[in-house]
Design a protein that fits this description.
Elements (H helix, E strand, L loop, with lengths): L6 E2 L28 H5 L7 H28 L5 E3 L4 E8 L5 E10 L4 E10 L6 E8 L8 E8 H7 L8 E8 L3 E9 L7 E9 L4 E9 L11 E9 L5 E8 L8 E7 L5 E6 L7 E2 L14
Antiparallel strand pairs: 1-3, 2-3, 3-4, 4-5, 5-6, 6-7, 7-8, 8-9, 9-10, 10-11, 11-12, 12-13, 13-14, 14-15, 15-16
């Protein structure tokens, strides 16, 4: 994607370098524990189903957000290529490598009257002079290197049109808040096509500590034959720094009508199930809910 950047033309300009300090950074990554020698070495391991789902979702979201954060970090490790003092604009680029069909630019603008920043990552095909925006964002007033709020969007359709190796579709949006030792964000897709569900993510992360994610997913999830109606699945997952956690899930609407299917699952530091229950007829809870590190908590529509 936009991370294949290995060559940078940069002047030794200190002016404008501080514009990079307020841009979103790696604190937006969801630090859900995934390494477990205990779980991987046990012959009878029963990985918690909702833990695996949550880990897969967080990996997916991290990859999408990381594609933007990684590019920003890579580019702003250098001084700006140019800085317009009068217009309060810092530019990094052009940058590219031999096999990349595009050259890339990062532009950050500051508006003194409102104390707000805007930024954009643009691609320029090597056989053209036209710039195409593939990612853009805003940083709200009062931003510092340690604390800021803002939003950004990533355009997969535009990226795919500029690079034959990319096949993405639609746009991905993030609204975030970065604090000194914590982060929270909401993220969602638009026009993502069949390869990605119509999903909304809401997560919080304490630096090096516990986190949580609410996932709202719309799709035909009940296994109906033929063209079933779309259900709404909601899952709230929470975890501690040592990996132990819990997910509470319910599904409604679609073919279920007013019926609500709910389930809860807890796992230990080895990501093995310690408790499971659901409201299906005749279902019997497995394990002891007292071993759960969180109490039940369902997300809201």
């Amino acid at each position: 994607m936009i991370l294949s950047l290995s060559m940078l033309t940069a002047c030794n300009l200190d002016l404008g370098s501080d514009y990079a300090d307020v841009l979103p950074d790696e604190r937006l990554s969801i630090d859900m524990p995934t390494a477990s020698s205990l779980a991987k070495s046990a012959d009878d391991t029963e990985w918690a189903e909702f833990y695996v789902l949550t880990a897969n979702v967080t990996d997916d979201v991290n990859g999408l957000i990381g594609s933007v954060l990684g590019t920003i970090d890579l580019v702003t490790d250098h001084r700006p290529t140019s800085f317009d003092r009068d217009n309060h604009t810092a530019v990094w680029g052009p940058m590219t490598d031999a096999l990349d069909p595009n050259e890339w630019f990062l532009t950050v603008d500051y508006e003194p009257a409102s104390d707000e920043y805007t930024w954009v990552i643009e691609a320029v095909p090597k056989d053209s002079e036209t710039r195409y925006a593939v990612a853009a964002g805003e940083v709200d007033a009062g931003a510092t290197k340690l604390e800021s709020t803002g939003r950004f969007a990533l355009d997969f359709t535009q990226i795919a049109e500029l690079d034959p190796t990319e096949q993405g579709q639609g746009r991905f949006f993030v609204e975030y808040a970065l604090l000194d030792a914590a982060a929270s964000a909401q993220a969602w897709f638009e026009d993502a096509g069949e390869e990605r569900a119509d999903a909304y993510y809401d997560f919080t992360q304490v630096d090096g500590g516990e986190g949580s994610m609410d996932l709202v997913w719309v799709g035909d999830s009940d296994g109906s034959a033929g063209a079933g109606l779309d259900e709404v699945l909601l899952i709230r997952s929470r975890w501690l720094a040592d990996g132990a956690g819990r997910s509470d899930v319910y599904i409604t609407d679609g073919d279920l009508g007013d019926e609500v299917v709910n389930a809860s699952e807890c796992w230990d530091t080895g990501f093995q199930r310690v408790y499971y229950s659901d409201n299906s007829p005749g279902s019997v809870p497995v394990g002891d809910e007292a071993e759960c590190v969180f109490e039940v908590s369902y997300p809201e529509l």
